[in-house]
Amino acid sequence: MEKAQYIWMDGTFVPWDEAKVHILTHTLHYGNGVFEGTRAYKTQRGLAIFRLQDHTKRLLNSAKIVAIKVPYSQEELEEAQIELLRRNGFDSNVYIRPLVYLGYGVMGLYHAKAPVNVAIAAWKWGAYLGEEGLERGIRVKISSFARNSVKSTMGKAKAVGNYLNSQMAKYEALIAGYEEALLLDDEGFVAEGSGECLFIVRDGRLITPPNDNSLESITQDTILQIAQAKGIPIERRRITRDEVYIADEAFFTGTAAEVTPIREVDGRTIGNGSRGEMTRELQEAYFDIVYGRDPTYAHMLTYI
Ligand code: PPE
Question: Of 168, 240, 249, 237, whose CA–CA distance to 203 is shortest?
Answer without folding.
Answer: 249
